[in-house]
Design goal:
Elements lengths: L34 E4 L5 E6 L6 E7 L13 H8 L11 H8 L3 E6 L4 E7 L4 H13 L5 H20 L2 H14 L13 H6 L2 H11 L5 E7 L3 H11 L23 E6 L7 E8 L10 H12 L5 H9 L3 E8 L7 E9 L5 H16 L5 H17 L4 H12 L5 H12 L3 H11 L5 E7 L6
Parallel strand pairs: 2-6, 7-11
Antiparallel strand pairs: 1-2, 3-5, 3-6, 4-5, 8-10, 8-11, 9-10
Helix pairs in contact: 1-4, 1-7, 9-12, 9-15, 10-11
Length: 453
């Protein structure tokens, strides 16, 4: 739950020009050039043309992630991501990545709660090559026991390195279980529980693959030095023949964990300095009181999104209570999401001092002490970040993937700057009052072995 991007996976832009209206002091975000079309088999295709560099990025994202698993069978989505590189009837194991590298490109993949993505960056004249290989493994993946056994150890080692050997990650996992409810979709780790991963077999992964990996459950995003016409021709040629499958609608719980508020603590000899966090259940673009989503993005920026935010100025610069203090919120989720506040205290400061200081800053917001000037500053930070994000083809494709894999649309992406610009101080206060409640909170303490008081 740490450090989500404040933009929440939405939109990007290209120009800074004066805005003519009552919002004259806000940056103007122009619509990013994009085209979209859908193949007869249901594959949605987005083209983001850019001639900034002679490269192109293909991202194929499936609308499936770890939140689509069931308790006792966790880790399938991530395990399958690994197995997607183990060959088809055409490609031998690991040949996909070797072929990309031989042609001067790079590739990788990722698994999230709501989506799984596979991406390659390569020269424009090699786009057909990676598109052909990606379409091949969409339908022809071979999951063999001989490949699965050693890859299971790779997956387990990845969990040990990124979670089991990282005290903060272990604490975050425990906090999610409390916030979203034990054994519920967003409470189960993307890496899976180790005992579950050890039990997963060829049948489990094959069934998951057949259930979710289909063109009508995917979005293809191509960004870079190409044209919509070229992408359309290649997509029809390589993805077009892949048959659609019946896809069961995905569901997410409408509530969080029971018995909130909760408090979780992890003491560990590997922790050099303590950390205090509080996470609140929050609406996303798709679940809960969605009308607060844009105001919550503004709130997280002005409250703890930078060194000039309220938390940083009060706790770090003025009162010397903390080494760092920030907040984060990510609205791009199929279900509920969370709003986090995290403080790394100054040596010698107590838990009570941190909680009192954070509480005082929260109370100011809840009491309505939010000015138009600081809202405007937060809005401009968000809008500027969206503009600068266009310097990276990778960030552009991921922004669109986040939205389109969780029920969003191109129209919503295009409307994001206007929605952010429309947020007013009373909207920010209302959003804070909606989520900053004890019955939706989990407080977590990460401490050295001797504890922290």
């Amino acid at each position: 739950m740490r450090r989500r991007a404040a933009l929440g996976g939405l939109l990007a832009a290209t120009l800074l020009t004066p805005r003519a209206s009552a919002l004259a002091s806000l940056l103007h975000v122009s619509r990013r050039p994009s085209d979209t079309f859908t193949l007869p088999n249901g594959l949605e295709v987005v083209v983001l043309p850019s001639s900034r560099a002679p490269i192109v990025t293909q991202l194929l994202v499936y609308r499936v992630g770890s939140a689509d698993e069931t308790y006792g069978r966790t880790g399938i989505a991530h395990f399958l991501e690994h197995m997607m590189f183990k060959g088809t009837g055409v490609l031998a194991a690991s040949e996909f990545s070797r072929t990309v590298a031989r042609n001067g490109g790079r590739d990788n993949a990722f698994t999230g709660f709501d989506m799984t993505g596979y991406h390659q960056t390569i020269a424009p004249d090699r786009l057909e090559l990676v598109m052909r290989m990606e379409a091949d493994r969409m339908v022809n993946l071979r999951i063999l026991e001989s490949e699965l056994r050693p890859e299971r150890e790779v997956v387990l080692e990845e969990r040990r390195m990124r979670v089991d050997n990282v005290p903060s990650a272990m604490l975050d996992e425990a906090a999610r279980e409390q916030l979203f409810g034990l054994h519920k979709p967003y409470a189960m780790p993307t890496a899976g529980y180790a005992d579950d991963v050890k039990r997963l077999g060829v049948g489990d992964l094959s069934a998951f693959y057949r259930r979710f990996y289909a063109p009508n459950n995917a979005v293809l995003i191509v960004a870079g030095d190409t044209t919509t016409e070229a992408v359309h021709k290649l997509a029809e040629k390589h993805y077009g023949p892949v048959p659609a499958r019946a896809i069961v609608p995905r569901k997410r719980p409408a509530e969080g964990g029971a018995g909130l508020p909760q408090r979780v603590t992890r003491a560990d000899v590997r922790v050099p300095e303590p950390r205090w966090s509080r996470d609140f259940l929050a609406p996303s673009y798709r679940a809960g009181e969605t009308r607060h989503a844009h105001a919550l993005q503004v709130l997280t920026r002005l409250f703890g999104g930078s060194e000039t935010s309220r938390l940083s100025r009060a706790l770090v610069a003025q009162d010397k209570i903390a080494l760092s203090a920030y907040s984060g919120y990510g609205p791009t989720a199929l279900g509920l999401t969370s709003f986090e506040i995290t403080v790394q205290p100054m040596r010698g400061r107590s838990v009570a001092e941190v909680e009192t200081a954070v509480g005082n800053q929260m109370k100011r917001v809840l009491d309505g002490d939010v000015t138009a000037q600081e809202v405007e500053r937060a809005q401009n930070q968000l809008l500027a970040s969206a503009i600068y994000s266009q310097d990276s083809l990778a960030s552009g494709t991921r922004l669109y993937a986040n939205a389109l894999s969780t029920g969003g649309s191109i129209a919503e992406l295009d409307d994001w700057p206007r929605a952010i610009a429309a947020v007013r101080p009373n909207d920010v206060v209302a959003a804070a009052r909606h989520i900053w409640r004890d019955e939706g909170a989990v407080t977590s303490l990460l401490t050295p072995a001797e504890g922290w008081k």
